[in-house]
Design brief:
The chain is globular. The protein is 38% helix and 23% strand. It has 15 helices and 22 strands. It has three domains: 2-154, 3-Layer(aba) Sandwich (Alpha-D-Glucose-1,6-Bisphosphate, Chain A, domain 3); 170-368, Alpha-D-Glucose-1,6-Bisphosphate, Chain A, domain 3, CATH 3.40.120; 374-460, TATA-Binding Protein (2-Layer Sandwich), CATH 3.30.310.50. Bound molecules: magnesium ion.
Length: 461
């Protein structure tokens, strides 16, 4: 549980409610959260699902009891990726969805994501209303004869897989006969992506694909360091592509045919280039932390970028508001609007296979064709009470430079290099990102601004 501002209590973080099981996230807390969600959203039909964590039965039972206790009908979709629950909430015309997951967090964590009837995470305003009910114990328990029910709702994974298949060129993929290695980190991605790509005619090898809530294969976050095993297997098997998901399979990181892993800004740029070449002039939504390459590709196709604050829900909601069909984040989250405007790991895997089949070159060649940029990042401690003041000072200092204050402060150093300073929403730190066309320039920028901000913070103390 987190504190917002000075002393306001908060339950929801940047991506739902998260914490260590039976320390921060207990069944008692989830039961009460279920009462509060059900009371506020008032919808009668909730779709409930969970990822592969050891605490998922305990916590999904608590959530179901919480919702049933305030008169909601709970449809139990079972174990699946978060984007599958999001797709099915909308497809099955549920009023809301609830996912028990801690995404990419370590095994001891779990959490709750609340989904609106349109399949997108609920907005911050609704989270605040749920928090108010939760902290005041203001939920409305039902009379004994008005309780809800728990109704099994099987078949979701097949419907989800089928919905992805119709978004891609099946014949093209089948003829390319690509060999792929999939590493779902022992998470729920193993229930979808290997089967989906096999059904599309790929030769599929898997590692870490049995569901295991202890995540024995590798940590559930698909950082480049965490997926070295996948890189080795891609090379050893002579595969065309390696595919790694995070714990709830809404993110995908790719490994090229030479066994080199590439961060999500590269794969998003490849998808953007391919999509816009077929859909000239369509807009693309991405957070201010994204690469300049994303903008250059958009300009090449006569398209424009719509920038948002960092956070997947900001991208989803902006896509919905502006009807932009594509969104993406540098962490491997791609939002393919024709399917659904949320991050979707299996959808992105199928799309990338189609691109390789279409372009008839390896992933490494697709990366080579992208505008060349290098990024660097770091963080610096800053007490909560100085965060805003320090940023104001920095803004003042840089007022003669081209800047952007959509989320923190982004300063353009030149046409091809920038630095972004963002206060973290959950920790007493600033995050510093930089990008430049030379690697050493990006690192120097981060170092330079780290020194400048430290100076400002020291002065303010
Ligand atoms: Mg995730």
């Amino acid at each position: 549980m987190k504190k917002e501002g000075s002393n306001k209590k908060r339950l929801f973080g940047t991506n739902g409610v998260r914490g260590v099981v039976n320390k921060e996230i207990t069944p008692q807390l989830v039961l009460k959260l279920g009462h509060s969600i059900g009371t506020f959203l008032g919808g009668k039909k909730f779709l409930l699902a969970y990822d592969g964590r050891l605490s998922n039965i305990m916590l999904s039972d608590a959530m179901a009891s919480g919702l049933i206790g305030v008169g909601c009908e709970v449809y139990d979709a079972g174990m699946m990726p978060t984007p599958a629950l999001q797709y099915l909430t909308r497809k099955w015309k549920m009023d809301s969805g609830v996912m028990i997951t801690a995404s990419h967090n370590p095994p001891e964590y779990n959490g709750v994501k609340v989904i609106d009837g349109d399949g997108i995470e609920i907005p911050r305003e609704k989270e605040i209303e749920i928090e108010k009910i939760f902290f005041k114990d203001a939920y409305l328990l039902s009379e004994w004869d008005k309780l809800g029910n728990r109704i099994p709702k099987p078949g979701g994974l097949d419907e989800y897989k089928a919905s992805i298949k119709i978004q891609v060129d099946e014949d093209l993929i089948r003829h390319a006969k690509l060999k792929v290695v999939i590493d779902p980190a022992n998470g729920v991605g193993g229930l979808v992506t290997p089967y989906l790509l096999h059904e599309l005619g790929c030769e599929v090898c898997t590692i870490n694909s049995n569901i295991d809530g202890k995540f024995p294969g590798r940590p559930p976050e698909p950082t480049l360091e965490n997926i070295s095993q996948l890189c080795e297997v891609v090379k050893a098997c002579n595969a065309d592509l390696g595919i790694a998901h995070d714990g709830d399979a809404d993110r995908t990181i790719f490994v090229d045919e030479k066994g080199i892993a590439h961060w999500g800004d590269k794969s998003f740029a490849i998808i953007e280039d391919y999509y816009l070449s077929k859909n000239l002039g369509k807009s693309v939504v991405t957070p201010v932390s994204s690469s300049k390459a994303i903008e250059e590709i958009a300009v090449k196709h006569g398209s424009k970028i719509i920038w948002t604050k960092v956070g997947s829900i900001n991208v989803s909601r902006k896509m919905q508001e502006t009807k932009a069909p594509l969104g993406g984040e540098e962490n491997g989250g791609v939002f393919y609007g024709p399917h659904q405007p949320v991050r979707d790991g299996a959808m992105v895997a199928a799309l990338m296979i189609e691109i390789i089949a279409h372009e008839k070159v390896g992933f490494s060649n697709l990366v080579k064709k992208l505008p060349l940029y290098f990024s660097a990042k770091d963080k610096i401690p800053c007490p909560e009470n100085l965060k805003e003041k320090a940023l104001e000072h920095l803004l003042n200092k840089s007022k003669n430079q081209k800047n952007e204050t959509l989320d923190g402060l982004k300063i353009w150093i030149s046409d091809k290099s920038w630095v972004l300073i963002r206060p973290s929403g959950t920790e007493p730190i600033y995050r510093i990102f930089a990008e430049a066309s030379k690697e050493k320039d990006a690192h120097n920028l981060v170092r330079e601004y780290k020194t400048i901000i430290s100076g400002i913070i020291e002065k303010l103390r």
